[in-house]
Design a protein that fits this description.
alpha+beta, Defensin A-like, 1 helix, 17% helix, Knottins-like domain-containing protein, Knottins, disulfide bond
């Protein structure tokens, strides 16, 4: 038979509601995101400000 391909899950992001201030540490961001029921999080630049975005597969 042919080769089977596995589907990649899409990632949905949501800005953290609990993270305060500029985001410089992905580790801190991920910790806050876990309190918001997200499995992971990372810092991203939004215009000129670094913000914490929580992520999950959707």
């Amino acid at each position: 038979m042919g080769t089977m391909k596995t589907a990649e899950a899409r990632t949905c992001q949501s800005q953290s509601h609990k993270f305060k201030g500029a985001c410089f540490s992905d580790t801190n961001c991920a910790s806050v995101c876990r309190t918001e029921k997200f499995p992971r999080g990372q810092c991203n630049t939004h215009y000129v400000e670094r913000k914490c975005y929580c992520e999950r597969d959707c």
